[in-house]
Amino acid sequence: MKAQMESCGRFLRLHGYERRIVLAAAAGLVTTWVGLRLAGFRRWHRALEWIALATGKPLDTTSAGVVERAREISGLVAAAARNLPCRMYCLEQSLVVWWLLRRRGIPATLRMGGRKEGERLEAHAWVELEGANLSDSDTEYIHFIPFEGTIASRETQTQ
After folding, report:
1. How many CB atoms neighbour CB 45 within 10 A?
2. Range 117-124, long-range pairs (CB < 8 A, 24+ positions)
3. In whole angstroms, what is the distance from residue 62 CA to residue 68 CA?
4. Helices 16-39 and 66-82 meet at what angle, rounded to 10?
5. pLDDT of 77-135, one tens digit each?
6. Is the dihedral of CA 143, 149, 154, 156 positive or negative?
7. How high is the pLDDT of residue 58?
8. Could you give the CA distance from residue 141 to residue 127 in angstroms, rounded to a whole number?
9. What is the spatial distance between Cα 20 and Cα 32, in angstroms, rounded to a whole number?
10. Is the four-CA dihedral 145, 149, 151, 152 of positive or negative sign?
């Protein structure tokens, strides 16, 4: 109960812009969790891409503050994921970060990679902007070999 009250207090101390992102992230995480299970990755990714293309106007990533804004959004998504009752894995979180950034016109890239750990094949998902991972605390991705050409967006395919 105490932890929930502290989380509520932290949420209330956020600025209005940050609160809206946290609420959108929480809704997006839950919806993505369900969407992945009902529609599968490929269809759900296309649906998010379609929604993002309909709402986002491309921003110039060289302008000041875009990378910082993207890192802030990534951090807010991670915070929302930590406070949900069910566990959100890297795939759900990365899809939501990617979608929120694309909606804001930030041309982020969804990346996935794999590695072999003993007899197990492990996978990981992360979001990059101009080649840099957006999650400050996530250095896990450096141990994964990125899959190439598996998550091409329609924009890339039409160019």
Report:
1. 20
2. 124/90
3. 11
4. 60
5. 999 999 998 999 999 999 999 999 999 989 899 999 999 888 999 999 999 988 888 87
6. positive
7. 65
8. 10
9. 18
10. positive
